[in-house]
Amino acid sequence: MGQLDSLLEKNREWADAIKEEDPTFFQKLSEQQAPEYLWIGCADSRVPANQIVNLMPGELFVHRNVANVVVHTDFNCLSVLQFAIDVLKVKHVLVVGHYGCGGVKAALNNEGFGLIANWLRHVQDVRDKYLDVLEDVSAEQDRVDRLCELNVVEQVNHVCQNNIVQEAWKRGQKLTVHGFVYDLKDGLLRDMGLHIGSDGDKDEIRQSSVEALVSRPVRSGRQK
After folding, report:
1. For residue range 39-64, what is the model confidence (pLDDT) as tens digits?
2. What secondary structure letter does DSSP report for 36?
3. Are the C-beta atoms of residues 85 and 165 closer than 8 Å to each other?
4. 173, exposed or middle or buried, with CB in 10 Å at 0-12, 13-18, 19+?
5. Is 55 exposed, middle or buried (0-12, 13-18, 19+ CB in 10 A)?
6. 50 in Cβ contact with 62 (< 8 Å)
7. Cα–Cα distance for residue pair 75/165, rounded to 1 Å
8. Is 98 a catalytic residue?
9. 75 pLDDT more than 50
10. Catalytic residue among 44, 122, 127, 145
């Protein structure tokens, strides 16, 4: 038996289950994709985008990297963003972080090494920007989670600043950028209050989100 036979078997079981429910599903899926959402999230294996929001293949366009970072020079992320907005015409871009993120923790504590240390410098820029906010949080895990939240705020801002999004808004395309944090402990998404649908909204909404974070304990606003 090959090393990956179990995965292939699981794939067959999954495909058979889908076809039993809808015999034409894969035929329709192969002809086009028309998702309304682009998910920009962390590469963490515990954060499976489609499953979290209970969407089928074809309903969610996904880009993932360590610590859900949006960098203006990352052509991988930018290519996904442009294809999603200009070709697929998605209506929503979701920036999704998660509590307990290992990349964020490493950035907070200067624990990165090798290539990942350079990548996490982007999260450390967020850390340094909000150092006074983080210093007010006593427990280390709470500081990690607060930085996870602040990182989402800043990455949403980076999406909104990008010329791909800016051009979409200028031509009147309906597009809203959102920020969420996923909680591994209960499987729920926490709304960060970031729903930005125009360039004129982004600064005020971003500031309101930061002020709301600072005024409440870490994770206090999560759903029960």
Report:
1. 999 999 999 999 999 999 999 999 99
2. S
3. yes
4. middle
5. middle
6. yes
7. 15
8. yes
9. yes
10. 44
Q: What Cα–Cα distance (Å) separates residue 37 from each residue in 3, 92, 103, 123, 143? A: 35, 5, 25, 24, 30
- Concerning whether 77 is annotated as a catalytic residue, the answer is no
Residue indicated by tokens 């909404």: 205
What's the confidence (pLDDT) of residue 220? 53
Burial class (CB in 10 A: 0-12, 13-18, 19+), 147: buried
Residue 217 pLDDT level (bands cut at 50, 70, 90): confident
Sign of the dihedral through C-alpha 126, 127, 132, 137 = positive
Higher pLDDT, 210 or 79: 79
For the sheet with 188-196, list strands across it: 60-65, 37-42, 92-98, 176-183, 188-196
Q: How far apart are CA 64 and CA 79, in angstroms?
A: 13
Establish whether 42 is a catalytic residue: yes
Q: Tokens 């309906």, residue?
A: 174
What is the pLDDT, as a whole number, of residue 201? 87
Is there a catalytic annotation at residue 101?
A: yes
Round the average pLDDT of the chain to a whole number and report it: 93
Which is the catalytic residue, given 5, 12, 16, 46?
46
Active-site choice (12, 74, 77, 101): 101
- Which single residue is written with the structure tokens 């450390």? 124
Examine the residue annotation and report whether 72 is marked as an active-site residue of this protein.
no
